[in-house]
Amino acid sequence: MKNSALFIVDVQNDFLPGGALAVPQGDEVIAPVNELQKQFEWIFASKDWHPADTKHFEKWPVHCVRGSQGARFPEALHISRIEKVFLKGTGASDDGYSAFEATNADLEFCLRSRGIRQLFVCGLATDYCVKATALDAARLGFDVFVVRDAVRAVNLQPDDEQKALAEMEAAGIHIIQSDQITKFRL
Q: Does domain 4-184 sit in CATH 3.40.30.10?
């Protein structure tokens, strides 16, 4: 268990229903993410932390502007055990999809320095930041698991989530359900 970590991707107010860039049923990940946290010693998270003038907003609605209510974690998300929050998308020309692009800390170093070999990924959104984070972790040699019942997709196209899951599986990432974690965790 000491060699595995839970990584919560971008569960922020702007990605929940009513937010500036709401992920359909994005709020449905909160309960499973809170439950998952009970199973891990190491818990990390990421946040979009955009400046107001980022070019990222040429592609997407204004969302998760640093310091705003939309950039905060929702009150229902348990955050007291999160070891470190990685801020991404912090530059004017930085999209920051992957948590490994964080500018406030080196995620790879953080994980390796704690002996973590397995990364269980959950959060928002399956077809963007979850996928980018999971793919980068796999490329860096981590054994990566995406917890299917604790992620939701934007689905700009109806099959975007299925394409993202297939791409991750093709990269060697395991797609599992919460109740399968103990079967895989070191």
A: no
